[in-house]
Design goal:
This protein has about 325 residues and is of the alpha+beta class. It folds into 2 domains: about 90 residues, 2-Layer Sandwich (Phosphorylase Kinase, domain 1); about 180 residues, Aminoglycoside phosphotransferase (APH), C-terminal lobe (Aminoglycoside 3'-phosphotransferase, Chain: A, domain 2, Alpha-Beta Complex), CATH 3.90.1200.10. The chain is about 45% helix and about 15% strand. It is built from 11 helices and 11 strands. Strand 9 and strand 10 form a beta hairpin. The longest helix is centred in the middle third of the chain and has 19 residues. It starts with a helix and ends in a 5-residue tail after the last helix.
Amino acid sequence: MVEGQFGLGETRKVTFLPEGLMNRNWRIDAANGAYALKLLRDVSAETACRNGLVLTALASAGLPVCAPVATRDGDVLLTIGPRSYLVSPWAEGAHVEGTDLPLHEATDLGALVATIHRALGDAARVPLPLPDARPRAKVTGPDEAIGKADRLLAVIDELAEPGEYDECARELLWERKVLIDKHRSSAPAAGEAAGPFGWTHGDLQHRNVLRCDGRVTAVLDWDRIGVRPLGEEVARTAQVQFGGEHGRLDLERVAAFVAGYRSVTPLSRADLADAVERLWWKRMSDYWIFEFHYDRGDHGPDSLMAVSEELLAWWTDRRDDVEEAFSAGA
């Protein structure tokens, strides 16, 4: 049914792709070519349709994105009962962790992110409204953050037969409470976020970037397009690309990435320092991996739990060094 609705031709092979953390994805080899099929689980159909139009515009502007294939009725999505599917041409390349990139490719990635930000802000090309209000920075205070940890600990305590993961989670949550209490005076203030803002991708981790022969062939998974401070996306991208899953940051590559971004779009040292500190505190006060596991029953991010806590401890001990790396190119 999918191949007929999207005009893919006769299906020859379907391969499930287990790498995705949120949505479910397949590769379809069909008579008319190779395609990626996504079953949406983490974004509404309305948002996915809007994002599909954005991708079409970005592709027309020459950026490395995969514009969706339209159905025979001209729609971006195919809805079958409660499920919605999106198809795009298959993009060749491999997911390469940022820590494995040569320094010049880390610089190129920063320049590409800045170029994407500029393109998303071009209302004449991209069907997104101009942001009409500066984003406000939400901050979870120390007491609230400790209360979240206590709630999760209570959930674990109520388990009839806690397993190895649960015991590890219990220990890490207690350690987090101690860390929060020690650094409670460093919590940033809520209010309007500093620096320039605009439309951003929202999740530029290495799993959402394909590479081939030293260049980016496709930026994937645009489910989280949103208006944010640009410094927030720069800081988060550097964190998830350059060591966030290894318990430490590769500060040399962070600096190269940030310098590449600033070569295209100016971003002051103060504005980016503010974004970095806010991201550090967000990691300190957020429990999304635990909440996925215990509240949603979603074990996809389980493998990130221990290493994320390791990164938080490493970062907390080296905040000045991290800030200095993010000053590159300023």
